[in-house]
Amino acid sequence: MKIPFLIGIGIIPGVTVAGIVSKYYQPNEVSGRWVFQGIDIRLERNLARKIMQTWGKKMSLKYKEENFPFLEEIYKKIVANYPVKLPGKLHFLRSDEFILNILPTGDAFISSGAIKDLDESGIANVIAHEFSHLKLFHAQEHIGYSRPITLLVAWMSRNNHHTTERLRTYLLNSRYNEQEETEAQELTKAYLAKTKYHETHYNCLRSAN
Predict the structure, then answer these.
(1) 132 and which of 69, 104, 110, 187 could share a cystine (Cβ 3.0–4.6 Å)?
(2) At what angle do helices 178-193 and 120-135 cross, to 10 degrees?
């Protein structure tokens, strides 16, 4: 009886670890590499909504927000091909600064300075590329905490405004590495293939800014 008991005891940690891995580690749909996702989609959208109440309002007040039907049409075509329905909207800011942020809610903050040298397909590529980073959860790979601390902070952020403010950095200021840029561009191709727009060299354009 001792051997089956010991085997059973040995299996329990393995099952526990497997459960944790299956919950917080997911394969990247482009490259297949396993990545840590400590923040689920629902919480990430809640974080985005709180960011909209603070950072988003400040951006709209600091810069002149305008209607830009040409950009709006491109944005809507890209969003229409996103696999999940997003409630956010486009926020076009009249500024020479390079501003390009797309939140998990679909709210996109794009400045005139970010698209001034791009044609129609170039703009579509920029938007689709950022949505690809969003879909692949690349920003979560740049959270400045260890993985256990990330899970703790994620849990705390549900009811703690201060923690939410600390977490917003990863959604607004991520700098992607070469592998993430390559993965995003591969997914971008799939989004653009469903539209009239063609692929451009977005990585080069981004690095130049």
Answers:
(1) 187
(2) 120
Give the separation between CA 157 and CA 138, rounded to whole angstroms: 20
| Residue at 1 is within a domain | no
Convert the pLDDT of each residue in 4-32 to its tens digit: 544 444 444 433 334 444 578 889 999 99
Q: Which domain holds residue 180?
A: 38-208
Backbone angles phi, psi at 92, to 5 degrees: -90, 125
Count how many domains the chain has. Answer: 1
Is 29 inside a domain boundary? no
For the segment 111-147, what is each residue's pLDDT rounded down to a tens digit?
999 999 999 999 999 999 999 999 999 999 888 777 7
Given a contact cutoff of 8 angstroms between Cβ atoms, the answer to whether 128 and 102 are in contact is no
pTM of the full structure: 0.81
Whether residue 16 lies inside any domain: the answer is no
